[in-house]
Design brief:
Elements: H1 3-18, H2 24-30, H3 33-46, E1 54-58, H4 63-74, E2 78-82, H5 89-95, E3 99-101, E4 111-116, H6 120-128, E5 130-138, E6 164-167, H7 183-190, E7 198-203, H8 207-215, E8 222-226
Length: about 240
């Protein structure tokens, strides 16, 4: 059993306890906070102030990516969203993305920081987009492809010095209590100011369909499966 899945279960129990009086639709939205919302929140904190800075989010239409786009935009960043699916462009702009591109190589100007959810060549391309002193945070590897950096990618000349890649693991310190971090985003979701990006919702008995959609890269955002209750309005 992974530390991440154990944390997610604990936080979901807290969300259910703290939102027991919420409607079914509201509690379903709040259940998406762990681990996607917390991952986006903590990586953005590690970036420091993003006000007026160009921040790239790869895998922007996924669970972590959508939270990252919205939170970065609200923090004053110029958000550069990367999504392979052109159908997601309007939705990402509605979340606050200033630019939407299909791959990092299409981005015309350098960025100060990157939250990478994809790995593989997307990580390599995103690292090449970093400006002086920029940092790429490796959060996920949805492509399941190896990231192979050519030797020249690590050169520091021509304005490419002092760039770095940092790994990220939400439960790197298993003793950390994340409960307090849920308060603000939960309130924002309940007030309708933060979109959890639920693209599929249905009964638990249809979990096989949700898993197949995830593995087939047809699930953009979060899936919510209801136990012993009616399915919500999103994509049953």
């Amino acid at each position: 059993m992974s530390a991440t899945s154990s944390l997610e279960r604990k936080l979901r129990k807290k969300v259910r306890r703290d939102t027991s009086t919420c409607s079914s639709s509201a509690s379903g939205a709040l259940s998406t906070l762990p681990v996607a919302g917390l991952s986006a929140l903590h990586v953005l904190r590690r970036m420091g102030s993003v006000l007026g800075r160009r921040v790239m989010v790869t895998g922007a239409s996924g669970g972590v990516g959508r939270y990252a786009v919205r939170l970065a935009a609200r923090a004053g960043a110029h958000v550069v969203a990367i999504s392979r699916n052109p159908a997601q462009a309007d939705g990402l702009r509605a979340l606050g993305a200033d630019e939407v591109h299909p791959e990092p190589a299409a981005v015309p100007q350098p960025v100060s920081a990157v939250l990478d959810n994809v790995g593989g060549q997307y990580l390599v391309g995103a690292f090449a987009c970093l400006s002086v002193g920029g940092t790429l945070f490796s959060v996920g590897r949805s492509s399941e492809a190896p990231a192979v950096l050519p030797p020249e990618a690590l050169q520091g000349d021509e304005g490419r010095h002092d760039r770095s890649i940092r790994t990220f693991y939400l439960v790197g310190d298993p003793t950390t209590d994340f409960s307090a971090d849920l308060t603000w985003p939960a309130a924002e979701i309940a007030a309708g100011r933060l979109d959890p990006g639920i693209s599929r919702r249905g009964a638990w008995t249809r979990h096989t369909e949700a898993v197949q959609a995830l593995l087939g890269h047809r699930l953009h955002g979060k899936a919510v499966l209801d136990l012993g209750g009616p399915a919500g309005p999103a994509g049953s």
